[in-house]
Write a structure and sequence with these properties.
The chain is α/β, with parallel strands linked by helices. It folds into 2 domains: 163 residues, D-Maltodextrin-Binding Protein, domain 2; 112 residues, D-Maltodextrin-Binding Protein, domain 2 (3-Layer(aba) Sandwich). The chain is 45% helix and 18% strand. The protein contains 13 helices and 11 strands. Helix 2 packs across helix 11. The longest helix has 25 residues. It starts with a helix and ends in a 5-residue tail after the last helix. About 4% of the residues have low confidence.
């Protein structure tokens, strides 16, 4: 046998062995702990939900799901970690659609989310609420608008620049011709704390209802049309008082690095689909203004593509920028 023939057979055997090893690894998935990275600090809705989902997914997969909080830059820190991780299903991320549809249009990124991350499992949708500190003499949408016009130096908190609640608040301010001072935080939890302390005067977020029940903040309206919050049946939507209102919707999903094998993605999708259907967790999150639901990977990708076009146009028309 000549040397070229031997090299060919050796390469073919090595390739076949590599394929066999990868196939075995996929069929054996998961065989160790999974890291679920989120771009927010402990305490907020995303953190609480991620931990609850992680516990349910761990039971389904038979391996620990370890939550890694990597706050900073509106999710950029956490998602960069995911994008550069091995595509083997052991490092996954919890992310908002804002990171795909808003962040790339407002700030330079070290990678392309659409090319280097793959959505595998839909989690659910935020029901955002406009709330104020109780000291503000406002209880209705018209009263809030009138007060904001008279006090353009009010501060509002967000979970970070280019995050969903930042964009939602800027949408409202531009739509209504209002002004306010943006105070970005590394996650919604510290922003909510400052709202309850009066260091910021208002906020748009889905993690405010426990504070509202305790009387620490006053809910004014539900931001998105067609939504409701358990325990606050009379809370109106912004659309009920403002003609042509169309606020952005924010939702969350699980991502993996691009080129993660299909069997691994399918295994994760199945586990998260079961978790988001857990009746106890559904009721718990609904009480905290969050709606768990499911969506296929293809439908989610198509929705992101469509919303990116709409959001880019919205950002341009509203002249929303990161200062």
């Amino acid at each position: 046998m000549n040397s070229s023939r031997r090299r060919f057979l050796s390469a073919t055997a090595a390739s076949a062995a590599g394929l066999a090893l990868r196939a075995h690894a996929q069929s054996d998935y998961p065989s160790k702990a999974i890291s679920l990275d989120i771009g927010y600090p402990p305490g907020g809705t995303s953190d609480v939900l991620s931990r609850a989902l992680g516990a349910l997914v761990s039971k389904s997969l038979g391996q620990p799901v370890v939550i890694e909080n990597r706050p900073g830059a509106g999710g950029v820190v956490a998602m960069t970690q995911i994008a550069k991780s091995a595509p083997d299903g052991y490092t996954i991320g919890y992310v908002s659609n804002a990171f795909f549809t808003v962040t790339p249009a407002l700030t330079p990124l070290p990678f392309d989310p659409m090319q280097q991350l793959e959505p595998v499992a839909f989690v659910g949708t935020n029901v955002n609420v406009l709330a104020v500190h109780p000291d503000l003499p406002v209880r209705t949408i018209p009263e809030f608008i009138a007060y904001a016009k008279a006090h353009p130096d009010m501060n509002y908190g967000s979970s970070g620049a280019a995050t969903g609640n930042h964009i939602s608040t800027e949408y409202m301010l531009n739509f209504l011709g209002l002004r306010a001072v943006h105070v970005p935080y590394k996650g919604s939890a510290p922003a909510v704390l400052d709202l309850t302390a009066g260091r910021v005067q208002f906020m748009v977020d889905s993690g405010l209802m426990n504070q509202a029940r305790a009387g620490k903040v006053r809910p004014i309206a539900i931001f998105e049309n067609g939504k409701s919050v358990d325990g606050f049946p009379q809370l109106p939507t912004m659309a009920s008082a403002i003609p042509n209102w169309r606020a952005p919707e924010w939702y969350n999903f699980i991502v993996v690095p691009a080129h993660t094998p299909a069997p691994v993605k399918d295994r994760l999708a199945q586990a998260f689909r079961l978790a988001t259907g857990d009746a106890e967790l559904v009721a718990r999150m609904r009480a905290n203004s969050y709606e768990l639901s499911a969506m296929t990977q293809d439908a989610l990708r198509a929705r992101l593509d469509s919303e990116t076009v709409w959001m880019t146009d919205l950002l341009r028309k509203a002249d929303i920028k990161i200062s």
